[in-house]
Amino acid sequence: MGYSMYRILVSDPVAEEGLALLREHFIVDVRTELTEDQLVDSIGEYDALVVRSGTQVTGRIIEAGHRLKIIGRAGTGVDNIEVESATRRGIPVVNAPEGNTLAATEHTIAMMLALARKIPQANASLKKKQWKRSQFIGFELNDKALGILGLGRIGREVAKRANAMEMRCLAYDPFISADRARALGVELMPLEEVIRNADVITVHTPLTKETMHLINADRIAMMKDGVRIINCARGGIIDEKALYEGLKSKKIAGAAIDVFEEEPPLQSPLIEMENVVATPHLGASTVEAQQNVAITVAKEIINVLQGSAAKYAVNVPAIPPELQERIEPYALLAEKMGRFLIQLLEGRLETVDIVYGGEIGQFSGNTRIITRYALKGMMDPILQSPANIINAEYIAKERGITIRETVTEESSGFKNLITISAKTDRMGEMVSGSVLMKGRSRIVAVGGYTMDMIPEGYVIVSRHLDKPGVIGRASTILGEANINIAGMQVGRITPGEEAIMVLNVDSEVPPAVMDKIRTKVGIFTAKFVKL
Question: What is the pTM of this model?
């Protein structure tokens, strides 16, 4: 199928700038307000799905998307998409994490100021022809402690603006270092300490099992009397029943809420309270933000459907842009090594250990993508449907395979060294590889035997008795089958005992020929490997 024949379904309103970009390359259908059943019935015709927050992309929809190659969320959060189901199918889920950052940041600041100065209430009163200045006395933000829960893109931008307003920024984020927080002008604290010390609390975390009701009745009880709370992130991070009780008791002086557990929140008592400023999920609702996220997701879909990698896939480990070119040679080598190793094994795979040695250790924290490539290489030959870097790790863990990563300075004399060891219920095997100058890669050891093998093409790996004539017998059989030997590597540890032979050949070796090699005296094992 040519690129122009790919079909894209857009099931939520998306800015025209993004749609126009997609229409330059593909067939685009905009069909909004579809039910789950309607999506299940129609998604099989499409290669990509674009949503915002309105469409719930369930596992049923993903399983019915037989042609789906990518799901795009024109926004930041992906909690309306069953990412695990997409990962199982090997479908990248992409978002636009930077497109609405400033819009959400500015909305948070606007909500904080509106809450502090009671602007919505004063506005409504004056429009009723009332002049009740004494009812709308506010409080100043200067020198107040702002507790920021989550120092992601939006949390960092909020901190920057709060610092400019001379607020004291306290923050909780388990994934950021104290040094990085200090550089942002923020004091990092445990969650409970932030909650106890903040005058204003704003949440900027994703909605996960861990952050669901992060702000609950127990944590509200820890807060200062008269605290203000802001949520422009995700409904559900704050327990709305607990928030309501806190507001009603005046423990919480006020709240500014843009997102709700159930939207629209027409039955929520929060929207009727005088000390609540509420907006209908407007955090990303600026012209610029809608254009930005639509264009970002459109570009992601174009890249993936035309064979390139996604930049913002949420179910693929993120690599810092400055490391991408440097990591790529190791990832490609790891994939070849995994593919090579799995074809040497027999039995049910149980464990995979990957050791990163030497200068590759500088990528510590970013080696997971290399591991995924190694697992892709291992899973691909043994599955009916192709594995990719999105679903390879998921498939391995689903099959009960234990995966371990180790980073060490030891590299056996090489500048860098990747060693993959695998065990099945019947045997174990290992292979080592290194990236040399100019990105050239080699397999440098197999099963403890030193090698210098280019990991490509067709390969025969045999273990044999280190005696004269044994290698010759195998070579004769290949010659009789008109199979040309392109290169040979041999290795041994003790003369006269077991040795290894690696033959690069120019064509596939039929099973009957491999069987014939295995029957020869002195040949212990012989495997044919396709790289």
Answer: 0.67
